Amino acid sequence: MPEDLNLVFKALADPTRRQLLDRLHEKNGQTLGELCGSLAMARQSASQHLSVLEAANLVSTVWHGREKLHYLNPVPLHEVQERWISTFETPRLRALSAVRQSAEEQAMPTPPTYVYVTYIKASPEQVWKALTDADLTARYWGHRNESDWQEGATWQHVRTDGSRISDVTGTVLEVRPPERLVITFPGSDEQRNGTPSRVTFTIEPHQDIVRLTVRHDDIRTAADLEALSAGWPAVLANLKSLLETGDVLPQAPWEMHAELRDAQMAHTD
C-alpha cells in the first residue's frame, strides 16, 4: 500500500481525529480555538491530532492575518473511494450521492470554500509571473489569463484555439505582487446569474521554495465544488512542473481526470 494511503488510514483510525474532520465538514475554515471549543479538547491535544491530519493531507491550513484556519481536504478520501469502493458499489453509491447532493444544495446555508496548497521550487516573482503572464498561463492551463492586473480591472480566461472565446470573465479585486492576488471567478450558469465566487492566490516564500495557496470562496453548487476539486490540483500540478522543469506534464492532467470519469461511467452502464 502506498505510504500516503497508510498515513490516511492511520489518521482516520482515531475517533478524535474523525471528530475533527466532522467539525470541519460542518464548518470549514476554523481556528484551533474554535475546534477545541466545539470538542471540549485541550489545545495541545487538538494541535497534535491536527498535525497527524495535516501529514495525511486530510487537513490544509491557511493564515488569515494572525489566525491559522484549518480546512478539510477531501482529495485523499476521494482517492480511497476511487481505488476500492467505486470498483464494487459505484451504481448504488452514485444514486445515493445524487440524492444527498440534492438535499445539501437545498439546505446549505453557507457557500463552501475549497483550499489547495502546493510547494514549488521557485521564487515568489516566478510564481507571480506564472499566474499573471498570458503566455505562461496558456502553456500550463490551456487558456490565456488576460488582464492588466490592476485592481478593478477585468480579466479573461481566453481559449488558445484561435477562437478568442472567453470562457470566464471576472474582476481583479486585489493585487499585491508578488504575495497576493484576488479575483472573481464565475463558475456554472447558476453562478453566473448570481454572485460570482472568489479566488485568492497567496504566495509565501521559504528559503528556496514557495508555498502557493489557492482559496476558492463562495462556491454556489455541489457540481461547481466537484469540478473545482478536480480542476485546481490539475492546473497547479502543471504550473509546478513548468516552473521546476521548464516544461508542462507530458499529458494534460485534466484530460486524465476526464478519462477516469468516462471510464467509471462506462463501467456502470
UniProtKB/TrEMBL annotation:
CDD domains: HTH_ARSR (cd00090), SRPBCC_CalC_Aha1-like_GntR-HTH (cd08893). It comes from the Bacteria. PROSITE patterns: HTH_ARSR_2 (PS50987). GO terms for molecular function: DNA-binding transcription factor activity. Coiled coil: none annotated. Pfam families: AHSA1, HTH_20. Transmembrane segments: none annotated. Residues 1-92 form the HTH arsR-type domain. NCBIfam families: HTH_metalloreg. Belongs to the AHA1 family. PANTHER family: TRANSCRIPTIONAL REGULATORY PROTEIN. This is ArsR family transcriptional regulator.
